[in-house]
């Protein structure tokens, strides 16, 4: 079976099971018909960008970066709400003003939450510049930011 098929199965397995070791992942893959070595699984984990995070039950498990980003975003929402002062659209740009020294943390949250909807984000100490492709996208992003705060 192809590498992409195997990696898709790995993503499926970590979404369903609390997998905390490569050996467990090898065993679960074998149960699904994928006979692989621990070294292959190790390479797959690296290519997929999987990391171990602390699960709700107190044990570690493999998760995707996206899963981590969502939980971090959830934690940062309070910072976003408390630190954001204003949101203004200027053509295809969204300018967000924050309290002093908060723009960096707030921009991390925005980057995680907005993801593919934006071209990029630049932040200094108290100002965030969100770059969008079009003015329509900028207005949509600004509305989404306003809903967060």
Summarize the entry for a quick read:
The chain is of the alpha+beta class and 149 residues long.
Task: Please name the defining characteristics of this protein.
149 residues, alpha+beta, Arc Repressor Mutant, subunit A, Gyrase A, domain 2, two-stranded antiparallel ribbon, 6 helices, 54% helix
How are the SSEs ordered, and which strands pair?
Elements (H helix, E strand, L loop, with lengths): L2 H14 L5 H10 L6 H11 L2 E4 L5 E4 L1 H19 E7 L2 E6 L4 H12 L5 E4 L3 E5 L3 H14 L1
Antiparallel strand pairs: 1-2, 3-4, 4-6, 5-6
What does this entry look like structurally?
The chain is of the alpha+beta class. It folds into 2 domains: 3-63, Winged helix-like DNA-binding domain superfamily/Winged helix DNA-binding domain (Arc Repressor Mutant, subunit A, Orthogonal Bundle); 67-148, 2-Layer Sandwich (Gyrase A, domain 2). Helix content is 54%, strand content 20%. The chain is built from 6 helices and 6 strands. It has helices at residues 3-16, 22-31, 38-48, 65-83, 103-114, 135-148; strands at residues 51-54, 60-63, 84-90, 93-98, 120-123, 127-131. The protein has a 4-stranded antiparallel sheet with strand order 3-4-6-5. Strands 1-2 form a two-stranded antiparallel sheet. A hairpin with a 2-residue loop joins strand 3 (84-90) and strand 4. Helix 4 packs across helix 5. The longest helix is centred in the middle third of the chain and has 19 residues, at 65-83. It is elongated. The mean pLDDT is 85.
